[in-house]
Amino acid sequence: HAKQSGRNRLAEFVPEMTAATQRRAALERELRRAIGAGQLAVHYQPQFDCASEALVGVEALLRWRHPEHGPISPAEFIPIAEESGLIVQLGAWVLQRACAEVAGWERAGGPALTLAVNMSARQLREPGFIEDVMRALAGSGLPPGRLELELTESLLMEDVEGAVAFMQAVRATGVRLAIDDFGTGYSSLAYLQTFPINQLKVDRSFVQLLPERGETIIHAVLALARGFGLTVVAEGVEEPAQLEWLRRAGCDVVQGYLLGKPMAPEDFAERFLTVRTP
Ligand code: C2E
Ligand code: MG
Ligand code: MG
Ligand code: MG
C-alpha cells in the first residue's frame, strides 16, 4: 500500500516537473530569437547623488517582453541565458544598446551620466570581451570612465586570480568596476584589498531594514569603502526615512523605487531630460 501511494505521488509530481522543464526549454528557444524579433529592451533606473539629489547615473536593466507570456522577469530568463551561453550575445547587445542610448541623451543636451551594466561570469570568460566593451564605447562615443561594470561577489569568487587579472585589464581601459549586491555573497573582506574596484553597491536587503535596523551593517560598509577609497551606492531605497538615514550616514549615491523605477528609454528621457520651459 505504501508503495502504491508513493507511486501515486510520483505520478502527480512528474507532469509538473515536465511542465517546468518544457517552459524552460521553450523560453531558451524563444530567447535565442528575441533579439532579432525586437522583444528585448534596456530599461534605465536613475541614480542620484545622496547629498544634492542630482541625477548622476543610470543602471541598465534588461527587459524581455514575450509575445504570449508578456514581460518575463530577469530573475527567470537571466539564469536560462547564463546556462545556455546566450548571455554572451545578450550581454553584448545590452552593452552596445545602453552605451548608445546614454551617449545619445548627452548629445541631445542631457547631463553626463554614468552607466552601470550588470555582468555575468560567462561574459567575462569570453575571449574578446574587453574588445566588445571598447567597441560599444567607441561606437557610441561614451567615455570609458562613464561606464561601470557591475560584478557580483560569487562571480569574483569563482576564480579569484582570473577575476583579478580580468579586472586589471578592464581598469586599464578606464572603465570602472562595482561589486553588486554587496554583503550577500561569500567573498572575504580581504579581497577588497585585492580587487581593483571603484564602488560597492549595498544590497537592498540591508537598505530595506533601515531606519530601525541594518544601521550597523551599512555603517560598516561605508567605513570599509572610505578606507579603501571606494564610493557606495545604496540600492532599493523605498522610504523617505531610508533616504534621510543614508544622507546623514554619508552614503554617496542612492537608487530605488522612491526616486525612480527602471523605465523604458523614452520614459526616462521624458522624465529626466526634457528641458521644461516656463
Ligand atoms: P540587480 O543588478 O541587483 O538590479 C536591481 C534589481 O532591483 C532590479 O530588478 C531592479 O528593478 C530592482 N529594484 C530597484 N530598486 C528597487 C526598489 O526600490 N525595491 C525593489 N523591491 N526592487 C528594486 P530586475 O530589473 O528585475 O533585475 C534583477 C536582476 O537581474 C538584477 O539585479 C541583475 O542581477 C539581473 N539583470 C538585469 N539585467 C541584466 C543584464 O543586462 N545582464 C545581466 N547579466 N544581469 C541582469
Ligand atoms: Mg545591478
Ligand atoms: Mg543589486
Ligand atoms: Mg543582483
Largest sheet: 8 strands, mixed, barrel
Bound molecules: ligand C2E, magnesium ion
Strands ordered across the widest β-sheet: 1-2-4-5-6-7-8-9
Enumerate how many helices there are, as a single number: 12
Distance between termini? 81 Å
- The beta-strand count equals 9
The percent of residues in helical segments reads 40-55%
- What are the segments in which pLDDT stays under 50 over at least 5 consecutive residues? none
Strand content: 15-25%
In brief:
It comes from Pseudoduganella dura. This is EAL domain-containing protein. This protein is α/β, with parallel strands linked by helices and about 280 residues long.
Structure description:
This is EAL domain-containing protein. Residues 24-276 form the EAL domain. The chain is α/β, with parallel strands linked by helices. The protein is built from twelve helices and nine strands. It has helices at 2-34, 74-84, 87-107, 121-125, 129-140, 153-158, 160-172, 191-194, 204-207, 215-228, 240-249, 265-272; strands spanning 40-49, 55-66, 70-72, 114-118, 147-152, 176-182, 199-202, 231-235, 253-255. Strands 1-2-4-5-6-7-8-9 form an eight-stranded mixed β-barrel, surrounded by five helices. The radius of gyration is 21 Å and the shape is globular. The protein starts with a helix and ends in a 6-residue tail after the last helix. Residues 59, 118, 150, 180 line the site of one magnesium ion.
